[in-house]
Please model this.
Amino acid sequence: MTFAWKSAGLTYNRYLAVASRAVRRSLKEGPRLQAERRGQQELRFAKWENGKQGEVKNLAEANNAAAIAQAESK
Model:
């Protein structure tokens, strides 16, 4: 049995982003604004090879690029 987000071609991080955005949008005005501000964080990562740090990338942009590459390969 496979998860719905996985069969839809989403990464787990992207699935969480979509789900959390849906929850934030369903809140009332005051709590919604506070939750939206908390959700506007930029995560960055870098791959390490042979003890050296690679290029630092934005996680959202990397996920979008991976999703496009996966969609094109199908």
User: Anything to note?
Assistant: Residues 4-73 form one domain.
